[in-house]
Amino acid sequence: MRLTQYFLPTLKEDPKEAEIASHRFMLRAGMVKQNSAGIYTWLPLGLRVLKKIERIVRYHQDIAGAQECLMPTIQSADLWKESDRYDAYGKQMLRITDRHDREMLYGPTNEEMITDVFRSYLKSYKDLPKNLYHIQWKFRDEIRPRFGVMRGREFLMKDTYSFDLTKADAVYSYQKMFLAYLKTYTDLGLRVIPMKADTGPIGGDLSHEFILLADTGESEVFIDEKWMNTDLSGKDIFYKNKAQLDSYFKEMTGIYAATDETHDGVNAPVNLIKTRGIEVGHIFYFGTKYSEALKATVQTKEGKNVPVEMGSYGIGVSRLVGAIIEANHDEAGIKWPSAVAPFDVGLINLKVSDEETSAVCKDLYDNIKNVGLDVLYDDRDTNAGGKFADMDLIGLPWQIIVGPKGLKNGIVELKKRETGERNEVSLDSIMTILTTSIRDLKRGF
Ligand code: ATP
Ligand code: MG
Hints:
There is one protein chain. The chain is an alpha+beta fold. The protein folds into 2 domains: 21-334, BirA Bifunctional Protein, domain 2 (2-Layer Sandwich), CATH 3.30.930; 345-442, Rossmann fold (3-Layer(aba) Sandwich). Helix content is 31%, strand content 28%. The protein contains 12 helices and 23 strands. Strands 3, 7, 8, 9, 10, 11, 12, 13 and 16 form a 9-stranded mixed β-sheet that branches. It has a 5-stranded mixed β-sheet with strand order 20-19-21-22-23, with helices on both faces. It has a 3-stranded antiparallel β-sheet with strand order 4-6-5. A hairpin with a 5-residue loop joins strand 14 and strand 15. It is elongated and about 80 Å long. Bound molecules: adenosine-5'-triphosphate (ATP) and magnesium ion (MG). The site of magnesium ion has 3 residues, from strand 13.
């Protein structure tokens, strides 16, 4: 993409309304525009990141055995009356009346709807287990939308729903999702800690929140010091190996980690760290709460009808964009982990009016695209300082800086955004360096 053609409205000044780094940088980097409180347009640069996160989330859901579907954003109130949550959800729920005076709502979550989908088709133990997910916009009329996309009113969530015959099977489904979440966050370049959680209005008896440690997080958390050296990647743990998965789950949930809601101080270890964090995922096993209310039953082998065992599993996809920035930035701007960067490489032309420089840049631009990397080419006829500042602000992992001085000696500069390290490399070797050091970081999501 050429910057002269791209829709990238960057801002030099910090917007007054932004209290935390991620909100400030998302506005300044032209990733989002606020339309109303907690409601945003995703501009091209921001949407690229959102899509990359979605892709990684989807990749791990699919491997864990979940099947993607897509439910609507607008739901009928009837299902929520069946589950008795229509009144209970209160003002968080955006209620809508259609032209026939029917009560509708913009879905804040989908337990009722997916249970209705299930009961419409599946009736036998032979149909189980099943696991369905979608990535869809939700609406919650939050009292205090703030911190940009971190606490929006309209936000993108990945929500998965598992259906099993027995509690033991449902716990296995829960453990698979637990593992999928750890793998997902690792591939997003984050260290996210699973914490025992209250089940809240969803109900049930097994629940974990996935928390990214950050000083600006809304939740107060208490974690065992051990978490600092614990491998959170879930690598070498296999979904199909039940015994291995179960012992891994017990090991991980055995290390103390609690939010202020569940922290009791009594069972806490002495070497406890008190800090803050951002909730980027939340999983629940809630048994037959919804299947009983909505009469989603299956016939057992013995011919008995029993309510299906369920769990639900959410990831805050749009919140993650902000959370990733909270974990990866400096004063100059964002430092995207390569897996979610909107482009892999930023190419800076220091002197657009110089014919040779522009010809070299054009070649590099084409070559980089041809090897399958995403490149943003700053071909604006503006000063170098502004170009460097914008490139650091939007945080692409690699920058290639090309100017007439270096080219005289056949040299361009390669900058790694994460460390700020800059190296002069020969023009001849740049493509080899790119394809080896960068392409390895891109996995097949
Ligand atoms: P919170 O405690 O932050 O209000 P929640 O517990 O109400 O979140 P869940 O119902 O567990 O949220 O939703 C699943 C995930 O969706 C959360 O873990 C979070 O990452 C994300 N999420 C929830 N509310 C919002 C919001 N208002 N804006 C952006 N993301 C959100
Ligand atoms: Mg939650």
